[in-house]
Design goal:
alpha+beta, Glutaredoxin
Length: 121
């Protein structure tokens, strides 16, 4: 997933306004220091690609809002990327392990960029 996210980061430069967020599914082990090391390993742009963790109940609240499985069910760990617009609306779910799904994400994100530019004009 992180390799795909790294690729997406390179396809959508910072001027597009895109942000990338990775949530820990193991908040007990994924301390901020561990996540910082992970971010460095994948060349995550600081201030643009965020690796988040926190108390399990808070992570679960966020996962529920995105219709994903709770952290207590690691076998159900989602491999989906979620495209969210600037208003916080979910625009789509994409399987990070499927190249066709990633291509659809790139297409949909490109359309979202165009729509955002038109809305700002």
């Amino acid at each position: 997933m992180s390799l795909q996210m790294k690729r997406l980061q390179s396809l959508f430069p910072s001027e597009t306004g895109f942000r990338f967020v990775s949530f820990s599914v193991d908040p007990e082990r994924d301390t901020p220091e561990v996540l910082a090391s992970y971010a460095d390993r994948y060349e995550a742009e600081k201030g643009r690609w965020f690796f988040l963790t926190g108390p399990g109940e808070e992570i679960n609240r966020i996962l529920r809002e995105f219709f994903l499985s709770p952290v207590e069910e690691p076998a159900m760990h989602s491999v989906r990327f979620i495209l969210v617009d600037g208003e916080g609306r979910i625009r789509g779910y994409y399987d990070s392990s499927d190249s066709g799904s990633i291509n659809q994400l790139i297409h949909d994100a490109t359309i979202l960029i165009k729509q955002t530019k038109v809305g700002q004009a």
